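Minutes, project huddle
Topic: does the predicted pose make sense with glutamic acid bound?
PN asked that the exact inputs be recorded in the minutes so nobody has to dig through chat later. Recorded below.
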Amino acid sequence: MTAVTPASASSPATVRTRFAPSPTGFLHLGGARTALFAWAYARRHAGTFILRVEDTDLERSTPEAVQAILDGMAWLGLDPDEGPFYQMQRMDRYREVVAHMLQQGSAYYCYSSPAELEAMREQQRALGDKPRYDGTWRPEPGKTLPAVPADRKPVVRFRNPVDGDVTWDDAVKGPITIANRELDDLIIARPDGTPTYNFCVVVDDWDMRITHVIRGDDHVNNTPRQINILQALGAQLPIYGHLPMILGADGEKLSKRHGAVSVMDYPAQGYLPEAMLNYLARLGWSHGDEEIFTMGQFCAWFDLGHLSKSPAQFNPEKLAWLNNHYIRQAEPARLAALARPMMEQDGAQFDGAPDLDAVLALMKERVKTINELADAAMLFYRTPAPDAELLAQHLNAAVKPALLDYAARCKTVEWKKDALAAMLKQVLADHQLKMPQLAPAVRVLVCGRAQTPSVDAVLALFPREKVLRSLQSA
Ligand code: GLU
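Predicted holo structure (tokens), as shared on screen:
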């Protein structure tokens, strides 16, 4: 039966991984980590990474929900080599494989009605048995099947082996064995002919010649069923690796209660994709004690052997720490492109104001996000309006003469950070004041706030005339 053979056979050495999200409205952090690991594994082995959208749940799989996945992947730079493929566009193929299995005898029509199935389960429960399909319509040699009821559309069931076990050596969890008697004859097509979830996954993994299925461990229960169907189809089995889930700091499954769980909330909050990637890479995987690394390094190092068997814990502080690292590393022009629109929204006036690249270079050291950076940089782009309380606090009688002296020297000092620093030091010495007495007063007058980076560095970025005007208002 050539029609059901997957398109072309690939050499077993060629790694092919996939990320197969069901659109739910956003790309979850857990999904992004699964995608990252599947992508990196393909990259490591010069293989192929495939994106497959499992969009058969028509209620949830809206175009917006699909787009949310694509946006998240694009922001992270996890570009697929093949796809996106959409299951809804592969219905004919699934029907073809169902027909083949019916013909081959590895699947059969089942006409049991929902009421009959319920009665069956009731009876089994009453006897203390695990509810399962009782095999009424399962063909066996020498068995006579009941008469086909008129006007009843059948489902198609997979003829699961009765004896023996299914065993696979999970790349994360180690060997797993499930007895076939634990598995029901799975419905693979509904009465209207539409294929069911596990069946589509099997046909896709087979057709797409997936060699490594890396996915969340919420799918462990599906694996023995999928393996049995693959075997019935004569398909080569992929290697399965099931990733433990991501928990919040309280040990509960990661959810909205723990903060943003949608990847695309992070760019909006001012996170850089490389910080998110670096953070996700360490959630359940390690390479010695490396914490900060590039995606190039990650792809060179990533292996299934160093995946953790226990759940990873989401730590927003660590993500913020990495974000600070990557913000400090980032080119000024890139930071400016990200911060500028936020600052414009905040009413920033760029005309005649200091160069944004230089300002961001000064302000980026301590910020955790681009939003914080934009906020900090605003002090150069709005007219300061120090409130009366701040002025009263920092401009006392002891400071005023020094401030006037400082303002006078500002007229002639060389307008450079070092010269400004030397001048400030001299003023402090002449007036016998300490830095924390004078510097905050200068900041409040020039910037409208008492805390900024080094006052000399900040002042040097402003035009001299603007500083003079502000100081004269003392
Ligand atoms: N569509 C499934 C999900 O989003 C993943 C299926 C798989 O990886 O086999 O959870």
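Observations noted during the meeting:
- The chain has 19 helices and twelve strands.
- The chain has a mean pLDDT of 94.
No decisions taken; revisit at the next huddle.
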